[in-house]
Amino acid sequence: MQLKGNRQSLLPGFVVSCALFAMATGLLLLLFSQQGNNSINLGSRYHRILAWTALQATLSTMISVVIGIVLGWALSHRQRFPGRAVFIALLSSALVLPTLVVALGLVTVLGRSGWINDALQLAGFDPFKPFIYGLPGILIAHAYFNASFAARTVLNRLQSIPSSQLKLASSLGLTPLQRFRLLEFPALTTALPALCTTIFLLCFTSFAIVLVLGGSPKYNTLEVSIYEAIKLDFDLGRAIGLSLLQLGVCALLVLATNRSASVLSIGAPARLTTGLHYSKTEIANQYLVIVTFGIFFLMPLVAIVSDGVTGDLFKVLLQPVFVKALITSIAIATASTIIVLFASILICSSITTLAVRQGAEASLLSRLMLRFINFSATLYLVIPSLVLGLGFFLLARQTGGSYLLWSVVSLLAANTLLVLPFALTSLSPAMIKAANRYDRLALSLSITGLARWRLIESTLVRPELAYVASLAFCMSLGDLGVIALFGSQDFVTLPWLLYQKMGSYRTAEAAGVALVTLALTLFVFLTLPRIGTAPRET
Amino acid sequence: MLILESVAFQYPRTATTYSFDMQASAGAVTAITGKSGCGKSTLLDLIAGFQQPGSGDIYWHDQPLNKLTPAARPVTTVFQRNNLFEHRNAIDNVIVGINPKIPSYGIDYDAAAEALALVGLAGFEKKRASQLSGGQQQRVAIARALVRATADKAPLIQFDEPFSALDQATREQMLSLVKRLATTHQCAILMVTHSIADCDAIADARYEIRDGRLFSL
Question: Which of B86, B87, B96 sits opposite A172 (nearest CB)?
Answer without folding.
Answer: B96
